[in-house]
Each structure stands twice: as structure tokens, then as C-alpha cells.
User: What shape does this take?
Amino acid sequence: MRSGEATVVKNAGSHYLLSELPAWDLFPAVLRGKIRLKENVVTNPVAVGDRVRYQADEDGCVITDILPRRNYLIRRSTNLSRQAHIIAANIDRAYLIVSLYFPEVKLPFLDRILVTCELYGIPATIVLSKTDLYRELAPEEIARFRSIYEKAGYPVIEASVPEGTGIEEIRESCRGRVNLFSGESGVGKSSLIKALDPTLDPKIGAISTVHLQGKHTTSLYEMYPLCSGGFVIDSPGIRGFGLVDVEKEEIARYFPEMLQAAEGCRFTPCTHTHEPGCAVKEAVDRGLISPERYGSYLGMLEEDKKFR
Ligand SMILES: Nc1nc2c(ncn2[C@@H]2O[C@H](COP(=O)(O)OP(=O)(O)O)[C@@H](O)[C@H]2O)c(=O)[nH]1
Ligand SMILES: [Mg+2]
Ligand SMILES: [Zn+2]
Assistant: This one.
């Protein structure tokens, strides 16, 4: 009997692949039944990035315990669904990959993921992908996008796989860390991973939406080792992103630029909607907080009213 601790690098459906990071030496393991039954709120008891304890003998390897998570990203497929899905655990940085076109980013969707990153203390970098397709056509839109998110405090990296733009910057930033690549299907997550390390072979191209639904989703999360150092978790396209674990009164705290401005509000608590002397609304009027981000915030409050 051999036992030890390892990291989950892939959910292969009936079993998991583990490796004792930072070493990359994969071995399969199944989940002990007791753990499988324990949780019913999340659809996946074990996520890629989870640190686990295992026991191995001649019959195979069994995951016996999931070690406490340093952090994780979780979502509901819609605000109405009761079950939630853990996207990945123990992440050093999340790269939120979005494109202004093909497919067109929806800012409220991006802001929802950013709120979740703030909630769980995961630093986020925004990657504007496929810029070769629209840099010439839409320079103002790129500048506008940058200003919205840089004002909010997030690094924005412009990237193009065919032109090689931004690749070295992302590679440097991934070194020595566990990084999650997240974003809608077709934005270029897998292509970026291949560009970071051409020896890797993540599946590139449209994944049929059938596979994005239900149980199959989990099997598409996979960690890759970068030859330049560090690890990247590729993920299937996320469409809906329902907030989990956030109270309405708290949402504003997870907009870093609003959190800072809110210190000046006359009332505490302040919802930053109708209160007189609201420093957040004043910052929006003065252009210090972008109307798009403030609009996303109001949208989240509204949704909260509808669904709870
Ligand atoms: N023009 C251009 N096309 C890209 C770029 N990155 C990815 N693509 C294409 O976009 C499609 C989806 O890419 P993929 O990496 O599978 O996206 P994923 O679903 O986010 O993993 C593929 O046809 C890629 O060739 C890019 O930087 N520029
Ligand atoms: Mg992909
Ligand atoms: Zn206020």
C-alpha cells in the first residue's frame, strides 16, 4: 500500500488523473464512494486543481480525502439552477479571455466572473483575444474596453495567436503558478495554450454545444504543464454565469473601484442606487467609475430581486 498527496489535473469522467505537482507524472485514481455521496449542492465533488490524499495498491488508486481548498471558482449555469459547479480549485490567477468580436464579449457576463474572482480572492487578468481580426477596424473600441477595466484595476493584455502578440507576456505571467483560462467557447483559450507551449495539444475549434451541457462539461477541464514553467487549466466555454454565495448588500464590495469610492458615501450601508450623498454615483458622474461597470452592478441587483 502506497499513499500520498497529489493534485487533480483532469476529470476523465469515470476516473481522475493525478500528479504530484510540480512533478508531471500522471496516474489514474477513482473517488472513494463516501466522498462521492457527501456533497449534493455542487455537481462535482472534486475539481481540477484540488489537492487530494490517495491510497494505491495492486487494485488501483483511490482518492480518500480532498484537502482544504485555498480558493475555488464556482458558478451556477443560470441564476435559477440550484446546483452549482466548481470550475477549478487552488488557482493562483484567472485569465478571463474575451474577444471584442467573433464572439462579441458581453460585459455583464465578464463582470459577473470578475465579481466571483474578487469574492474568492483570485487575482484576475483580462486577455483581449483575436486582436488581429479587429485592431484595424475598431481601435476606439479596444481603447474603450481597456479604459473600462484598467480603471477598475485589472491588467488587460491584448493577444493574437497568428501574430504572436501578448504571448510572451502571458507566458511570463504564468510561470511558476497554477493559472485558469476561462471564457466563452470560441474566444481562443485552447489556441492560446498551444501558442504558449507548442508541444501541448489542447483541442482547438468549435466544441459542439451538446457537450457543454450536463455532466460532460466537467470532463473538459484539464491542466497542462507549460515548458516555460507553471500550469494552465483549459476549460470549456462558459455561457451562463450565475453568482453563488454573494448577498445583495455585498455585491458592491466585489467591484474594487466601487469599494474604494464607497468610503465616501454619506450612509452606511449604501446601495449606491438612490441614496443622497452617494460617493459611488458621484464617481460615475465624474467618469472615475465607468458607466458600463456601474450598469453591470445595477443589473446584478435587479437579478437578485428576481431570483431570490
Ligand atoms: N484570427 C484569430 N483566430 C483565432 C485566434 N485564437 C483562436 N482563433 C480561432 O478561433 C477558433 C476557436 O479557438 P479555440 O482555441 O478552440 O477557442 P476556445 O473554445 O476558447 O478554446 C479556432 O478556429 C481558432 O483557430 C486569434 O488570435 N486570431
Ligand atoms: Mg477550448
Ligand atoms: Zn453609495
